[in-house]
Amino acid sequence: MQLVSVRVATMALSFLQELFLASSLLFLFIPLYRQFKFRSSKTNPALPTDWPVVGMLPSLIANIHDFHGYATALFAASGPGHSYEGHEFASFFDTMGGSFFNADGESWRRQRARVQHLMASPRLLAFMAGSCRDKVENGLMPALARAATARAPFDMQELLTRFAFDMTAMPVFGVDPGLLSVHMPPMDVPNAMDAVMEVGFFRHTVPISCWKLMRSLRIGPERKLAVAQPVLRRFVAEMLQKRAHENDGAHQLDIVSSYIDDPEYVGEDGEPKDFLYATIINYMFAGRDTVGTTLAWLLYNLTKHPHVVSNIRRELAPIVASRNSKSGMAVFDPDETKPLVYLSAALFESMRLHPPGPIERKAVLADDVLPSGHEVRAGDTVLISVYSMGRMERVWGEDCAEYRPERWVTEDGGTAALRHVPAHRFMPFNAGPRSCLGKDVSVAQMKSVVAAVVWNFDLEVVPGHVVEPKLSVVLQMKNGLVVTAARRGSDVADETAELCRGQQ
């Protein structure tokens, strides 16, 4: 644990050094900074000072260790919004090229229509559900069982990252990369994906001219990104090769099959174009980051609220009781956990407090005035702190900081039902035309995963372990989630019967 603390301190120091370098460059290139000038209120003393030239950068550096908490306090002081000027935000994630994550206009509409068609395919959805169950039963559960037997602390976030990576790659390529195998291969590709998201966050904190200069000089975080991008491209190439050598017929089900014969993505020589690489990498980010990050925070919240774990087990008990098997670990199909209201509530409540994408960005198409009274102009970019929205008293009430799944549960004719919350209030899955097309799939997968973990194991965070967000576009845990696992004992059958009687 001491080594972990040293590593974390080093990472924090490295990021501050990078910010200091960026601010130093800022002074050297003052004229270029005008394209990213903050417009802050000068009448509210609770807001940070808007200094000449450097704007609010000193305040950001001073609070970078708790950026999201800082943003929440800022919005609480300033009201529902805060504005600034900026452009070229698609370049922040140039690793994904012109794929649907960055695309606008006709290109975005065409790409989204393709994704929508894929997400509506019964065969692909069945393949994804089967891949999820297989990876839970033959990957995640055995890994947790080994950790429980060893009685040694382990990083649950890393384990879930491996799980989510494999589970995403299987329907994308039709083959399993095996990151969650018994031998636990190196995390080179997931680490490269993390670097892309960390650098994306860094690019949001400094003027565009600064990070572009750093990129040309290959210094600071831009050097890290330059190393990560070839790793991702090489992974895609290797997986496409592995897919090409498989002859089991599964290729008709994978996502790549929808692109491989399209001349927009593959050249006449049969070689993938950059557009295909970017699109596949986009899929990997969309699946891995949402599922892996959300599951880690959900399990963390469950370790802190044992009564929520008991309520989830109470919902699962009738499913387990209906089976004939008396031995082995219980694994749940997405169809089995789909109707479980409290499990959904526990998931959404965790995403309210810990959204996998803590910041959302929108581009303004035409001049307008927002409900908050802020004027926006065509070409402006609006940044939405989804993290802060989930912790605002004006949105969620006085207990907004509490993890309380019950806020999502209502009564419908005497039966518990999930309370409807509009997307503009609960934005982890985005809202409007760009709402997440994979929401239903990812929710079903995550519910079946957490059901298996909660039913078969007791998890406990190692005493003294600090859990806090990483400085990244994705809300991962900076120090990981170090826990111990204990296999639930032989009294589970008796407990199941007791829980079932409690529901009668």
From TrEMBL:
Q: From the UniProt record, list the coiled-coil ranges.
A: none
Q: Which InterPro entries match?
A: Cyt_P450, Cyt_P450_CS, Cyt_P450_E_grp-I, Cyt_P450_sf
* GO MF annotations in UniProt: heme binding; iron ion binding; monooxygenase activity; oxidoreductase activity, acting on paired donors, with incorporation or reduction of molecular oxygen
What taxonomic classification does the UniProt entry list for its organism? Eukaryota, Viridiplantae, Streptophyta, Embryophyta, Tracheophyta
Query: Would you tell me the protein name for this molecule?
Result: Cytochrome P450
Which parts of the sequence bind heme? C436
Q: Does the keyword Oxidoreductase apply?
A: yes
Q: Which UniProt keywords apply?
A: Heme, Iron, Membrane, Metal-binding, Monooxygenase, Oxidoreductase, Transmembrane, Transmembrane helix
Q: Where are the transmembrane segments?
A: 12-33
What species is this protein from? Lolium multiflorum
- GO:BP terms for this protein? lipid metabolic process
